[in-house]
Amino acid sequence: MPIVTAPHAATTALPADTAGQPQYYAPQYLDGFPDTVTGDSTLGNINGLEVMEVPPAGKAEPFVRSPLHDTPSMALLLAGLLAVALSYHTGYKYIENFLHYMFSTRRRENLFEDHTVNETGILAALIANTCIVEGFLVYLAVQLLRPSLATVLQQSVFPHIAAYCAMALGFYVIQWLVYKMMGYTFSDKVGSKLWIDGFKSSQALLGLLLLPVLVLVMLYPSSGKLLLSVAATLYLVARLIFIYKGIRIFYGNLTSILYFILYLCAVEIVPLFIMMGVTLWISGTL
Q1: Disulfide check for 129: which of 8, 53, 77, 80 has CB 3.0–4.6 Å away?
Q2: Which of 253, 240, 267 shows the shortest CA–CA distance to 103?
Q3: What is the DSSP letter of 6?
Q4: What is the model's pLDDT at position 139?
């Protein structure tokens, strides 16, 4: 008779017969293993053992939507950067002459200076990038400084950012028109052109400087207020550079200084408070 065994199972040994036939082992657990093991004080009842250990976890927090996780918003930001990159190869000299346009008040250009490159494309791309970056920063500033509006902003991220970018573009166009009118009123054509060049170059450079600050605010929102202070400082420095160039162009006597002080109040300070009101109105409307 062949040997019949049951691997990995307890068996009962039967005594060998007198003819010397091989010993037969009958399986003990035909219906499976029991729930308990006799004499094992460590294992005990297997039904009482944990299937898996649940790791400890903190309190669940709701997901906070931000421009960094919003596809249309990031597409808008990347579109501005792509426009600057595509127009750089034809207008790189404008970026190289940033300091010249921001500070120079020379009324006659050097004959050997090259200003024949078409700067319209790179300037438009830089200004668009500045307006987009400013729109993002306004959104983050409202969310951090006005927590009561955070829920409304997070429910519709892209509409608010698009509205803030449009507001920044509109503010730029209005400023450009006002400066152009004031330049022709209080100066000549050459002086007005120098002043407008300073305004456009300072705004174009401002967008490039604010871009890394925006990236840091989105990546490290816990330091948002500090980084927004850095952004406000950069904006203030750009305005002061432009104002300084205006003083050099329009300064003639004490009367011109009085006019310039009135200009600062009417064109540089009051519009900022108006834009703050428009920003809060947009935040509560959308």
Answers
A1: 80
A2: 240
A3: -
A4: 93
φ/ψ of 9, rounded to 5, equals -135, 145
Match 């980084």 to its residue by tokens: 227
Computed on alpha carbons and rounded to an integer, the radius of gyration of the chain in Å comes to 37
What phi and psi values does residue 185 have, to the nearest 5 degrees? -80, -45
132 φ/ψ angles, rounded to the nearest 5 degrees: -65, -45
Cβ neighbours around 239 below 10 Å, total: 17
3-state secondary structure of 11: strand
Structure tokens at 48: 């009482």
Q: What residue spans define the domains of the chain?
A: 68-104+113-285
Contacts 24+ apart (CB under 8 A), 160-163: 160/282, 160/283, 160/286, 161/67, 161/70, 161/73, 161/76, 161/135, 161/136, 162/76, 162/135, 163/135, 163/282, 163/286
SS3 12: strand
Per DSSP, the residues of 108-146 read: S--TTS---S--HHHHHHHHHHHHHHHHHHHHHHHHHH-
Kindly tell me the burial class for residue 159, based on how many C-beta atoms sit within 10 Å of its own C-beta (0-12, 13-18, 19 or more).
middle
From CA 66, how far away is CA 74, in angstroms rounded? 10
The H-or-E segment that residue 27 falls in is strand 25-27
The whole-angstrom separation of Cα 210 and Cα 198 is: 18
Determine what percent of the chain is predicted with pLDDT higher than 70. 71
CA distance 58 to 104: 59
pLDDT (tens digit per residue) in 102-143: 877 776 654 334 444 567 888 899 999 999 999 999 999 998
210: nearest Cα among 77, 104, 64: 77
Contact of 159 with 284, CB cutoff 8 Å: no
